[in-house]
Amino acid sequence: MALIVQKFGGTSVADADRMREVADHVARTVRRGDQVVLVVSAMGKETDELLRLAGEVSVVHPGREMDMLITAGERKAMALVCMALHHIGVDSESFTGSQAGFLTDTNHQNAKIVDVRPDRVRASLDAGRVPVLGGSQGVSTDNDVTFLGRGGSDTTAVAIAHALGADACELYTDVTGVFTTDPRVVPTARRMSAISYDELLEMTATGCPKPAMRSVEYARTHGVRLHVRSAFTWQEGTWVDEEVPDMEQAIVSAVTHDTSEAKMTLAGVPDQPGVAATVFRALADLEVNVDMIVQNVSAQGVTDISFTVPHADLARAMEHTKRLATEVGAGGVTSDDSIARVSVVGAGMRSNPGVAATMFETLAAAEVNIQMISTSAIRVSCVVDGERVEDAVRTLHDAFGLAEA
Ligand code: ADP
Ligand code: ASP
Ligand code: MG
């Protein structure tokens, strides 16, 4: 008998029919003799809708009330899925994050799990029931309801799988697994049968929306095997696991892209110790997540620093950096919100030179200009014009031979 955590995303529980399908699938798993813990997201686009409503009633959004509001989406879904299970004779009971033992910090809207105490969930399993957990939620050390952030249901699933020592954690979504690139951009993208935590982490950090990056981090830290698969076709998906040491690694496994960031440039900065420290400390204190950073060679004692920030933080970051520019004696600050980032990811890069060169040649042949470059041991990223990013993805996916044969 195996213990399996099954998590269903918004599209997979979007309406009554979808919920009945999920219930059927769970029933089949249970009748096969396995134990199931179910984790559900809010129905369809409900989280977005709740956020929109909050914006309509007020410009003030206290974290505590926002979390109370948003977690209501998952609460609704878990009760309804439970009823669908009862309807077909599967004994089940729903649990909020608090009831399921998810203890978090007090950072509303993006709370971090500090402990999982799954006693009630385990008791429910022992009693022969299917526990159904509302995803992305917990209770804080101050005893308030907390939300784990967008995409947090994936993290709920991984964390409960770890806490219970489950045999597998299945993340059901609207595609059949993790693809070599976004299948909406390249229809010939191929589903991967397996991928390592490290590669998937690089993919999710550079624009692949599935699974949520934090859940992959949690899975890697605790060695939870993931299976990303479709709730519509039920076919075998993508397994996420430790890299097999002597496996022949693909040099490039995937191409990702991200349009969520903007570029800022601080020009004419005095080239002396402490300037970068001042600028980036100020941004860190504002909780602006700075990503790629490039500093030019200096000429006549001044230099330029460019970096990327999330669109959502651009206005704030610009305002403060403009003020700082005067303080540190810089020439000025400019921004560009029409950039995008394209990346190639692959564990085989570690031992194969030339990936960056091929990437740059491919972009050059497509006349896509490169504005910034950054690398890790298993990734090369380029900032390009946002309007050309999908062309860049297509041509790179082709150049590295990733398409369906
Ligand atoms: P859910 O609603 O199930 O939580 P999302 O809608 O956030 O999931 O993410 C799933 C979508 O991510 C897919 O529909 C797919 O179009 C897109 N996607 C982008 N890049 C990839 C990729 N490399 N592999 C798989 N899906 C991808
Ligand atoms: N419903 C939440 C969201 O859309 C949490 C989740 O589904 O993971 O972000
Ligand atoms: Mg979706």
Question: What does the model show?
Answer:
This protein has a domain at 3-173: Acetylglutamate kinase-like (Carbamate kinase). The protein has eleven helices and 20 strands. The strands form four sheets. It has an eight-stranded mixed sheet, with helices on both faces. A four-stranded mixed sheet has the order 5-4-7-8. A hairpin with an 8-residue loop joins strand 4 and strand 5. With 405 residues, the protein is α/β, with parallel strands linked by helices. It is globular, with a radius of gyration of 23 Å. The chain starts with a strand and ends in a 6-residue tail after the last helix. 35% of the residues lie in helices and 26% in strands. Helix 1 crosses helix 3 (63-87), helix 8 runs antiparallel to helix 9 and helix 10 (355-365) packs across helix 11 (389-399). The structure holds adenosine-5'-diphosphate (ADP), aspartic acid and magnesium ion.
Which characteristics define this entry?
binds aspartic acid, alpha/beta, binds adenosine-5'-diphosphate, binds magnesium ion, 405 residues, eight-stranded mixed beta sheet, Carbamate kinase, four-stranded mixed beta sheet, single chain
Main sheet: strand order? 3-6-2-1-9-11-12-10
Terminal CA distance reads 38 Å
Looking at CATH, the homologous superfamily of one domain is: Acetylglutamate kinase-like
Beta-strand share of residues:
25-35%
Parts with pLDDT < 50 across at least 5 consecutive residues = none
Tell how many strands the DSSP assignment holds.
Answer: 20
Which CATH class of one domain is shown?
Alpha Beta
The total count of helices amounts to 11
CATH architecture of one domain: 3-Layer(aba) Sandwich
Bound molecules: adenosine-5'-diphosphate, aspartic acid, magnesium ion
Shape: globular
Structural class label: alpha/beta
CATH topology term of one domain: Carbamate kinase
Mean pLDDT: 95
